[in-house]
Amino acid sequence: MKRRRGLTGRLLTFWAALLAVAVVRPVPALANARSQALYAKGLIPFHAGRWDDAYRFFDEAVGADPEDALAVYYRGLTEARRGLAEPAVTDIQLALRLWPDLPGAPLDLGVLYFNAEQYDQAEPWLQRAYQQPWSRFVAALFMGVSRLRRGDNAGAHQFLSEAATDPELRPAAEYYDALALFREGQAQAARERLTLLQTEHPDTEVGRAAAEYLQTGAVPPAAPVPLAAGARRWSAYGNLAFEYDSNVGLAPNDVGIQRSRSYGRQSDGRAVLGFGGGYRVVDNDQVSATLSYGFSQSLHVNLNAYDLQGHQVRLDVATPPRPWFQLGLSGWYDFYALNYQTFYQEGVGVPWVTLFEGRVSATQFYYRFRSRDYFRGPLDPFLDGYNNAVGLRQYALLGAEDRVLDVGYQFDDEDPISRNGNDFQYQGHQFDVRVQGDLGQIAHATGGYLFHLMQGDFANSRNVSGFVRRDAQHQFVIRFERPVAAHVIANLTYLGTINVSNTDEFSYDRNIVSVGVGIQF
Asked: Which of 105, 241, 254, 500 is deepest in the core (most CB within 10 A)?
């Protein structure tokens, strides 16, 4: 027991130190609640490319708190996308005065001056961005093109060669490097490179620009420049929560169909740690793909044998949203250790299609396949098997971007591999509804209800009357989130479960209350 308390103590000390760094590091004073709420609302239309709507929210956020650096910064980015270069420069420079280490801002200023053909003004900002690892290669590309346009072919080759080491930037870097070769009189080498670009990227801006140059010898007015200013390919998160669980579960995916009086049925408190991140490995006008990893660890106060550690590797692939539809595929692999011993693994694949109905609603259809494998008892081999599900989900805005209603239906079929799992084989119908939105300036709230009806396929051995098992599960969730510092969000969550079964052994209630804090980048 001493070892466990020591591990918990070290975990809490680590997170306390991490949060202290996040809060006391040199960032601007925390914006007021109204500014934060408006800024958060503005991010939704911003990432959807609705610049006018985004500008309105960011402008109101700046009006609520003129020293909110992030609101000022994003207002500047939105002005840039609306073609208002001078106000954009003014806002981003102001954001940097409010927050001197604001990530991404030097690159954005350099690109704005570059687009205005003010290369001397762009140079110091691009040099500053070049010193930062997350923006080095993009800055190298713009510095190379800047050198090219000012007649410095040797400098152009140097920076464009470095930019070409980034797979996403390589086509554009090689295009401009070919132009530098033309200017140096190396026409044959330049034509070979442009011909290769035209062949390998025929339906992209780079390929079309290469073809036009080969035909006319002129640089197209809209020469290829990848990555919008301020774009970021990576994301990261961390969270720490303290929970009370009235009915501790033995395993992940802990639904009523797999619980019985033999497993768990004890209350306890625990700390839950999680962290992870993602990287967009592909992002072009045809498809985007994001690879991510997540880690989780629970540490119980008393039920140490229930400590669960999880690892997830995930890939999400999607086409860009078209006017009326979007296609995607998500897949992930989960591995769990129970009390630090190998316990469980699963693989899941979900192809989906979303149909857009104007700007206020959408319908998503999906198929889900899951393969589940427990390595040891008491759940092996009873719950090893496959689950196939088909479903649809309807989304609708309730008068504002931050108020969303979604309703879903899913049919699923659980098929255990072993005959020992007949007690857990079923066909199910699931209905759920969720509403989320802001509660004024207090918090962002989510409320949801789920009903899952599961009908067994065989007479259940745990029922003395030999009935086919039938479960009706109800789940309730209420969650509140509120920003407390830059990138730091506090949360409070309640999750309730009531499972009613005609096989008494499987009837149970469960209540979880969680208080936590998360860091997002």
From this structure: 105
Yes or no: say if 61 and 88 are a contact pair by the CB < 8 Å rule. Answer: no
The token pair that represents 142 in the structure block:
């713009």
Same domain, 198 and 341: no
Task: Please tell me whether residues 240 and 210 are part of one structural domain.
Answer: no
| Residue 514 and residue 424 share a domain | yes
pLDDT digits (tens, 9 = 90+) for 126-165: 998 888 777 888 999 999 998 888 888 888 889 998 888 8
Residue 225 lies in a domain: no
The answer to whether the beta carbons of residues 61 and 469 sit under 8 Å apart is no
Question: In terms of residue numbers, what domain contains 133?
Answer: 2-216
Q: Which candidate, 194, 184, 189, places its Cα nearest to that of 156?
A: 184
Residue 480: its H or E element: strand 468-485
DSSP bridge partners of 476: 449, 496
Q: Looking at the domain assignment, is residue 81 inside a domain?
A: yes
SS3 per residue for 194-238: HHHHHHHCCCCHHHHHHHHHHHHCCCCCCCCCCCCCCCCCEEEEE
pLDDT for residue 306: 87
CA distances from 73 to 82, 109, 152 (A): 14, 11, 33
**433 and 284 inside one domain:** yes
Please indicate, yes or no, whether residues 437 and 501 belong to a single structural domain of this protein: yes
On whether both 274 and 178 belong to a single domain, the answer is no
Which residue type sits at 33?
Answer: A
> Do 303 and 408 fall into the same domain?
yes
What pLDDT sits at residue 25? 35
Sequence letter at residue 137: F
Q: Burial level of 86, CB count in 10 A (0-12/13-18/19+)?
A: exposed
The stretches in the chain having pLDDT less than 50 are 1-29, 222, 226-231, 255-263
Question: CA 104, CA 411: separation in Å to the nearest integer?
Answer: 45
CATH number, domain of 84, equals 1.25.40.10
- Identify the pLDDT of residue 136: 87
Q: What are the residues whose beta carbons fall under 8 Å from the beta carbon of 275, sequence distance 6 or more?
A: 236, 237, 238, 239, 294, 295
Closest among 427, 430, 408, 405 to 416, alpha carbons compared: 427
Q: DSSP characters for 128-192?
A: HHHTSTTTHHHHHHHHHHHHHHTT-HHHHHHHHHHHTTSTTTHHHHHHHHHHHHHHTT-HHHHHH
Domain annotation covers residue 245: yes
**18: three-class secondary structure by DSSP:** helix
